[in-house]
Amino acid sequence: xxxxxxxxxxxxxxxLLLIAVPAPETAAQAASHLGKWTLNANKSVYSPGPPPRAxxxxxxxxxxxxxxxxxxxxxxxxxxTAEYTARFDGKDYPLAGNADADTVALTRVDDLTFDxxxxxxxxxxxxxxxxxxxxxxxxxxxxxxxxxxxxxxSSVAVFFKQ
Length: 162
Fold this sequence. Notes:
The protein is mostly beta strands and 162 residues long. It has one domain: Calycin beta-barrel core domain (Lipocalin, Beta Barrel), CATH 2.40.128. It is built from 1 helix and 11 strands. It has one helix at residues 7-20, and strands spanning 35-39, 45-47, 54-62, 65-73, 79-86, 93-96, 103-110, 113-120, 123-132, 138-146, 152-161. It has a 10-stranded antiparallel barrel with strand order 1-3-4-5-6-7-8-9-10-11. A hairpin with a 2-residue loop joins strand 7 (103-110) and strand 8 (113-120). The longest helix has 14 residues, at 7-20. The chain is globular, with a radius of gyration of 20 Å.
């Protein structure tokens, strides 16, 4: 039995709406990034330098959110920890432990890549691209921005999965 003619346009409109509106990003879609990553300073480039002595990034999920804990040993030995929990929806989420930024906004590029926009008091200070190699063993974090002292910064940091 065929539906009445008046129902067909409504069903078609609903179907088109479902196709046109992408499903919200979930933390599970960040599976390629999950785990512990260790900086290889010898393969990384920081401007201005020097690079950190060490850095470990741990990515996990917390409900439907992506959680990042970034533990860094600075060039002079001071240890810092930056942390955020966010969705891949382009909205600002609190970023703790970063002297240059107070919020982060994440957007998914593809299964292996996401972008992060870091802001301080609502102003963009750094853009970051975080990409995983096809074999899942290397992560490259490329950033460009301005630090709290107003200096331009850029880096290409290479990490290995632990």
